[in-house]
Design goal:
0% strand, single chain, mainly alpha, 403 residues
Length: 403
């Protein structure tokens, strides 16, 4: 029962963080688009968020294995509270250059917070699930990942709604207060030694030497880069400018997409059961999902280029993209834990999500640059190339019994 209780505590803290993280992204994106910032300028606002996520994942796993995942979880929540509070001090009278630099700095703080929280939460599952319980591990990972993304989608909607009702500054302060309550509750309830390795590892171990972890991390980089190339900047701006949607509509649509995406992730074990004969995913599962995603993305690009109805191409295509991407992401999240021993889970998860953050960094930058130069169609073709590379790398993952 203590394992289930700790899992619920970790998941609850991750939920609270994720809600504010999704809302913050939508607040910043829509607020600065409303102020007249270009797609490239908006993309730059998020670059430090992803860049510092790379560094955090690389070092945070080692810190978590030495000091316990409770320390890194609490640090992530506290840093997000600080980032929200400081961002509320932003003055519209500041110059564009100073405002961008200020927001980039606070997005760096938020990126550190996000990846400390994510690494802590996902590593804790490996520690809490009994060894050899592969099905339970896949199910618990799917629930955590899926519910997280559903709440991130709710955060998108919350961000758009708060911006339209109470405004930028009040929204940030409300979220900081709510997250402070989550932090206090977690401090009082979670045991302190969770995730602490029995045998200390050297700092040099932060760079994985496992072939399987390295390959999966490389595939993850291109997989998440492919999504963010058209999702982070290109899609919201396209919906706002080309389709004439308002802030609440854009936030609401992206929220529904991410909520649905999270729901599919939660159901991934059930959806894959018929294809795997009741077993758990292997490397071939990740490869097949990536190739299917590449084909779909190419079809969406062809539809947009041919000026087919946006609802048929962009909206419906995005829904199908979310289903395939969600299942493939759940497979990845399970495989990284399946390839790791409990004592090294934090190190491997940190390394793996470093690659995830690197993919998002590249995808975020390309989302603004490619959209400004080649529009949504250009973003989609670059996205298709990225996910095709993810599939090619996944073909080299183990296809038999996991060890």
């Amino acid at each position: 029962m203590s394992e289930l209780r700790n899992y619920a505590l970790v998941t609850g803290a991750y939920w609270g963080f994720t809600l504010t993280d999704g809302a913050l992204r939508m607040l910043v994106l829509l607020h600065f688009h409303q102020l007249g910032y270009s797609p490239v300028q908006i993309a730059f606002l998020f670059l430090f968020y992803e860049f510092f996520g790379i560094l955090t994942n690389l070092i945070g796993g080692w810190i978590g294995s030495h000091m316990g995942l409770k320390v890194t979880l609490f640090a992530g929540l506290a840093l997000q509270i600080a980032a929200l509070g400081l961002l509320a001090l932003l003055d519209p009278g500041w110059s564009v250059a100073f405002s961008v630099a200020y927001v980039m700095g606070l997005q760096a703080l938020s990126g550190i917070a996000k990846d400390l929280t994510k690494m802590s939460s996902k590593s804790a599952i490996k520690v809490l699930v009994p060894p050899e319980a592969d099905s339970a591990l896949f199910r618990w990972v799917a629930i955590l990942t899926g519910s997280k993304n559903a709440l991130k989608g709710a955060g998108f909607f919350l961000g758009g709604l708060l911006l339209a009702t109470v405004g930028f500054r009040a929204a940030l302060l409300l979220m900081a207060g709510g997250l402070a309550l989550v932090l206090l509750a977690t401090i009082l309830s979670l045991p302190g030694t969770i995730g602490m390795a029995k045998k200390k590892t050297k700092f040099t171990a932060i760079l994985s030497k496992s072939r399987d972890v390295n390959l999966l991390s490389a595939a993850r980089l291109f997989l998440f880069g492919s999504r963010d190339i058209w999702f982070v900047v290109a899609l919201p701006v396209y919906l706002s400018v080309s389709l004439g949607w308002g802030k609440a509509q854009v936030g609401g649509f992206l929220a529904l997409w991410v909520i649905g995406y999270g729901g599919v992730q939660t159901l991934a074990p059930v959806l894959l059961k018929s294809f795997l004969g009741g077993g758990t995913p292997r490397g071939g599962s990740a490869g097949a999902g990536a190739f299917a995603l590449a084909a779909l993305t190419a079809l969406i690009a062809l539809g947009v280029a041919a000026d087919v109805s946006p609802w048929l191409t962009v909206v419906t295509g995005l829904a199908l993209f979310g289903v395939i991407f969600a299942v493939n992401s759940s497979v990845h999240s399970y495989l990284i834990l399946a390839y790791s021993e409990a004592d090294h889970a934090a190190l491997n998860v940190g390394f793996y999500y470093m690659a995830n953050a690197a993919g998002r960094l590249v995808g975020t930058l390309l989302s603004g640059v490619v959209f400004q130069w080649a529009g949504l169609v250009g973003c989609l073709w670059v996205s298709a190339a990225f996910v095709l590379l993810a599939g090619a790398i996944s073909l080299r993952l183990p296809r038999g019994r996991l060890v």
